[in-house]
Design a protein that fits this description.
One of its GO terms (biological process) is methionine biosynthetic process. It comes from Crenobacter intestini. Its EC number is 2.3.1.46. Transfers a succinyl group from succinyl-CoA to L-homoserine, forming succinyl-L-homoserine. The protein is an alpha/beta fold. The chain has two domains: about 260 residues, Rossmann fold (3-Layer(aba) Sandwich), CATH 3.40.50.1820; about 100 residues, Rna Polymerase Sigma Factor, Chain: A (Orthogonal Bundle). The protein has ten helices and twelve strands. The chain has an eight-stranded mixed sheet, with helices on both faces. β11, α9 and β12 form a beta-alpha-beta unit.
Length: about 375
Amino acid sequence: MTDSSSSVGLVRDERAAFVTPLTLCSGSVLAAYELVFETYGTLNADASNAILICHALSGHHHVAGRYAETDKAAGWWDNMVGPGKPIDTDRFFVVGVNNLGGCHGSTGPSSANPDTGQPWGSAFPLVTVADWVCAQARLADRLGIECWAAVIGGSLGGMQALEWSVRYPDRVRHALVIASAPKLSAQNIAFNDVARQAILTDPEFHGGDFYAHGVLPRRGLRLARMLGHITYLSDDGMGEKFGRMLRSGEYKFGYDVEFEIESYLRYQGDKFSDRFDANTYLLMTKALDYFDPAAAHAGDLAAALAPARAEFLVASFTSDWRFSPARSRETVKALIAAGKRVSYAEIESAHGHDAFLMTDPPYVALMRAYLDRVAQEAGA
């Protein structure tokens, strides 16, 4: 296996401006917008080796590499994307994009509203997975990519891969849907609402227009992230890493941080609240809630997936209780009923929902094997 330290090296982001209005599923219209993206590898002569990476809730376009040698961390999927890695940039042209409504450069709530010159804030319209895919398709047109060799995503990114397969069936040859689901369960919608309420009730939120007040709703976003992070981990994983370890070795009989798991969650919440936009968190969780391709087909998921022409890889992880293996099997069952070609893997992992970001050897081997076939078909 290629050295896991191999990297795409130093990268830079790019910006694409679109002036053709985009009508959203809500009925709102974005007259113009920008998407920030990164690319790795080289597009071949017939543009047959392009792969789109769709990010999850807190993800973005910076998938691999570093912006500077001094950067402590690489892109969020650097363990999977790079020379000789499963998504091999010596063979594929890989595209990562920050979705509409994001807070890492693409047009979103923190961007300037052209009508006012001030941040959009609460005026930014809600977006859906379908809206993201439509915007991504326009970016593909701009890059000269008529058909993706593969569209890949984990969690919310997997929902985008599914949406691509049915909205643009002639533009996707393979769809890799990892640790995802065809719609959220009631429990997942409930988790999202509690997280949103933490933000909405923060006194510094100001109805979404906190930018004008020079403040940030850090407390609400911190609590939202802490709650979300608990759902991304498994009980066994947390137990193995933290157990009931006390920071000082004894009870302090108070409400400050005593257990190591408390310290970890507060650290994650604090870090997230300094780098993520609260309005973006709200609209991303709503996009998760709204995703349900079967809704337009009287709840028949097989009928919803019938237009797809892609081949599918669906993968789940045994310890993922946020998007459990049962939800992936639901997708597989519908794909088979719709007569689609699908491979399914249920991978043993203690990492919970976050397993799709990790380097568990069986997972890496699965991705490598499947994408090797994708590369061969693309002549890469």
